[in-house]
Amino acid sequence: MTLKRKSVPLGTPSPDSGQIKVGSLFAAIGGFCKAFQLAGASIAWANEKDQYATQTFRLNFPRVRHLHKPVEQVSVVADRLKPVDIMTAGFPCQPFSIAGRQLGFEDDRGLLFMHIIRLIREFGAQKPKVLLLENVKNLKTHDTGRTFELIQKEIQKVGYWLGESNAKILNTAHYTDIPQHRERLFMVALNCDFFSANTFQFPDRLPPGFTRSVRNFLDLHQKADDRYYFVPGSQYYSLFREAIDNGDKESVFQLRRSYVRENKTDTCFTLMANMGQGGHNQPVIRDRWGIRKLTPRECARLQGYTDDWFKIPEVISNSQIYKQLGNSVTVTLVERLAKNILQLLNQTQSASDPARCSPAQLHFRHLPRNGKVVL
């Protein structure tokens, strides 16, 4: 099976935006980069510290300048980073995830967010016009909302609009035709020196019935490699067989600790970074040859990494590929966001008397007042 991009693009038609430049922190395997390329922008540089994700990124983006180092070591001056119009960052989610210990900024990985702020300051007057940040949906409510409020304040201090309307939880299955239940928090912050008002609009949710069947993304007409099948008598075989026999045999199933659950909505469960570490959290189906895990290629399609461009490195283990895909954004969803951002940039002209806001003014404008955000 070869799954290619649909000929009719989603969302707003792409503007003539070839000159719009994007820089990507925590770039991983390039989900943000590909989405903005598809929307019409160009990628100036990307940064990622993971050596395996770096291999996948460089295989798929050979012409993009890539800095393989921790974000703590990235410097605008020393690394000669070109100023960009848009900066993306899917900063580490583990400190805020409901699946983890939720230590937030008490976890060193949570503090990596502050290096985004540092680099914005290093760009000075040439700081990005738009920031696009992504994290788990739990970030919004972590520590009774104080974590998100801190992030909001820090971004406002460096001169960006970031109110409640700039942060939204989006589900892949509701905003694209990809049948994966994946909820993530996206934040779009606008530079006050360029935008005189906070006017960004998130894309609309797609109508019911737009999402395709999950089985359209699977290789059901050919046998997968033997390593993906559960062998009778193996550790999890009987659990899956019982659940599948008692459920819809065309559903996707998933092992959660000591039980198997069925997805009855013709979608796939959220792809997770640890799904390559044994049977837990791995999406499982039955095909005509037996009960098996989804392959890395099938998982890639369910994240918008289509066959016509995405290459999977042969030298990297499957467990690493599963991890990379589970950590990724959904390319097709970010493409919709990218189109709205690029359209807004092309429509906006820098005012002759820009709305230059002091950190104190920004703090006053955006902080909740009596339970409401004042803009």
Task: Please describe what this structure looks like.
With 375 residues, the protein is an alpha/beta fold. It has two domains: 21-209 and 328-373, Vaccinia Virus protein VP39 (Rossmann fold); 214-326, DNA Methylase, subunit A, domain 2 (DNA Methylase, Chain A, domain 2), CATH 3.90.120.10. A hairpin with a 2-residue loop joins strand 13 (368-369) and strand 14. Mean pLDDT is 86; it is low at 7-17, 95-100 and 350-375. 26% of the residues lie in helices and 17% in strands. The protein has helices at residues 31-39, 51-60, 113-123, 146-157, 172-175, 237-245, 296-301, 318-327, 331-347, 359-366; strands at residues 21-25, 42-47, 65-67, 86-89, 130-136, 160-161, 167-171, 183-191, 252-256, 259-263, 283-287, 290-293, 368-369, 372-373. The chain is built from ten helices and 14 strands.
